[in-house]
Design a protein that fits this description.
By secondary structure, this protein is mostly helical. About 60% of the residues lie in helices and about 0% in strands. The protein contains seven helices and no strands. The chain has helices at about 15-20, 25-45, 55-60, 60-75, 85-120, 130-135, 160-170. The mean pLDDT is about 85.
Length: about 170
Amino acid sequence: MAARRTIKAINWAPLVERIHESEKAALAALKAKSDQYFRRVSENPESLPKIDWAQYKKYVSPALVDKFQKEYESLKIEYPADKYTSLIEAQEQEATTVVQKFIQESNSRISEFEAKINKLKGLMQYKNMTMEDFARAHPDMALDQINRPTIWPHEEEFQPNPDADKNIAHH
């Protein structure tokens, strides 16, 4: 038999700090419903109320009162079994794993970006570079008219595509 358990109080402050401004109205509605639920649950007693059976035996047949008393005292209200806590804890563990992986990946990206920033800080300012300096600093981006000739305006969208000419010839 599952036990009757309720949370006595919820600490809403950490949730309010983390939630986006656009979601605060929905959180306030959830808090109001939660508070209403807690009030309704707390109004009910933990156990069945005690009945003065001797008082009833004075006015009603004692055999009938004994029968009612026996049935009343044998009444057991089964609370639903808790079958969701383990699932929620498993989801929490999975989410924690995903978050930790994301943090590690983010930290590695941050270190790569910091290395690029340090490399760029070590470069000469672009306004002071010559074309040769730019070609040494960025060989993949520099104009190389010997190995990779281009036509003016030297932007990729204006360059002829030799693969497109091959595809046209085969058709």
